[in-house]
Specification:
The chain is α/β, with parallel strands linked by helices. It has 11 helices and 10 strands. It has 2 domains: about 60 residues, no CATH class; about 150 residues, 3-Layer(aba) Sandwich (Rossmann fold).
Amino acid sequence: MAVTSITDSELTLIVQTIRSVSSYDFSDYSDKSLKRRFIKILMDCRITTFELVQQLRTQPKFVEEIAKKITVNTTEMFRDPPIWLSLRSEILPKLAKKGYIKIWHAGCSTGQEVYSMMILLNEMGLLEKTELYASDLNTDVIDISKKGIYKYKFNIGYLDNFDKVIRNDINNPLIVRDVPYNKYFDIDQVSDTMKMKEFLMGKPNYSKLDLVKDGNLFNVTFDLILCRNVIIYFNYGLQNKIFEMFHNSLQADGFFMLGMHESILGPYATKFEKRGYYYLRKA
C-alpha cells in the first residue's frame, strides 16, 4: 500500500489520539515534519490511518513504538566540523577558567555527539572537571549511547571529521597532531564495530526527557547547552517555549549551540547574542 499523503484532519486525529492515551504531545511539532513521519509509519506498518488510530487506542506498547519512530535520530562523530572547531578555539577555552564545567546535550540521539564532546574535552585537559548530561525522548537511542558500540562501516566516513577537529592544529594548519583513534575507540573491521573506551562510557548522566513537557529535569544550571537539529521539527510557538527553558537553564554567561541551519527567531532572539556558530546568553 503506497501512502503518499495525510490530510490535516487525519494528522489532527492521530496527534490527539496519542495525546489522549499517553503523556506524549506532538501537537506543536511542525505539521510538515509530522506528516512525513506518519506517512512513513503507515507505509512501513502497511496500515491505514484508521487502523493506526485503532492500534494507538488499544495497544500501549504500540504507542511507545510510534513515539520513537516520530523522533529523528540522525547524528555522527564531530558533525559539522566548523562548529566543533568553534568549541575548541572559542568556547571551551573560556569555560576552562571555571572551577567546574556543566554541559547538557539535549536530544543526544545515539550519542556520537556526546562522545565527540568527551574526546575534545579530554584533548584539552578538561574532561575531569566537566559534568556531562545527555537526554532524549527515545530510550532506545539512549541505550545505544550508553553501550558505546557503533557500526564501523557506517562511521568510517566520519573519521575525517575527527581528523579535522582533533588532529589538525588550529594555530598551524601544516601541523598534524598525533592522536590515534584507539586512544578513544577500538575498531574491529571483521565484526564491523567501533567501540568507545570504558573511561568515556561511564561519564555522562543520561535521562529520558521530553523537551516539550519536562523542561530541565536535571535541576542544573549549565555553562553550555547543545540542542542541535531538534528545534527544526517544532513550530514557532514551541520553539520559543524551548528557548525560554534553555535561557533559564543557562548560567548568566552561558553558551548555547543549535544546528548549522537553525536559529533563534522571535522574542528570545533578544535574550541571546549570536556569535558565529554559537549564542551567548544575555543576563
